[in-house]
Amino acid sequence: MSKICPNCKSENEDSAEFCQECGTKLPQYSYSVPPAGEEKTEPKKGNWWSKQTNMVKVLTIVGGCCVGIIVIIGLLAVLFPDATTFNYYVGDTTALTKTFSQNGLTFNYPDDWQTATSQGDIVSSGSSVQYLTSLYGSDGLTLHVSMGDLAAVGATMAQTKEATKTNIQGGSSAKLLSDTQTTVNGLTMYKMIFTLTDPTNNQENKVLTAITGREGQKVYYLQFIAETSVFDNNQKLMDNILNSVKVS
């Protein structure tokens, strides 16, 4: 510790009463002099974020999230300009407010769908299949529903699925696109998708045949058919209908 003369700024011993250079009376307190070559350090200044109030921080975060959502929506609108196709990717919100319930089979379908007044043309029809109903939407997607009796024909669900696939592929224009198995509400469900060409106008259609039921009891066929673009635009809706299927 040392004393700095207030007059000439000379450094004096801490015990000195007068400046050894100019004789000025020195103050009773002392100054701390940093060692030679060492500079005083200024306190670090905080960054922009640390200086903001909590309200500003909250508004900044919320604003950033809103901008991000707008950007994502804009990208989706550019990538999927067709509203129907867009619904397929983000989830079809069509309400399934109507219920079909007959012969132990129950499922839901859209409110604007109509019931056909005559029997539909079931692609996989056979002598052991009983027609139940046909439903259709305004865009041309049609659903044919039929049933069979596994006990009567002595077949398993898997055998019935293979027989149905063979029947459909019997047509020269039929081409199998997918063959999958899943579980819906505790029931095994087989789903097969085919392409079929209508010989009258060469229009390409797609068919989704879903088969479900209980082993040794009733088996049910739900068959969707539509022109290819209509079919593709309704895949989420068809999945929703099939996911509502129950068998009593």
UniProtKB/TrEMBL annotation:
A cellular component annotation (GO) from this entry: extrinsic component of membrane
Gene Ontology terms for molecular function: calcium ion binding
Domain DZANK-type residue range list: 5-27
The PsbP C-terminal domain, residue ranges: 100-247
GO BP term, pick one: photosynthesis
Transmembrane segments: 58-80
UniProt KW keywords: Membrane, Transmembrane, Transmembrane helix
Protein name, per record: Zinc-ribbon domain-containing protein
Species, as recorded: Methanobacterium formicicum
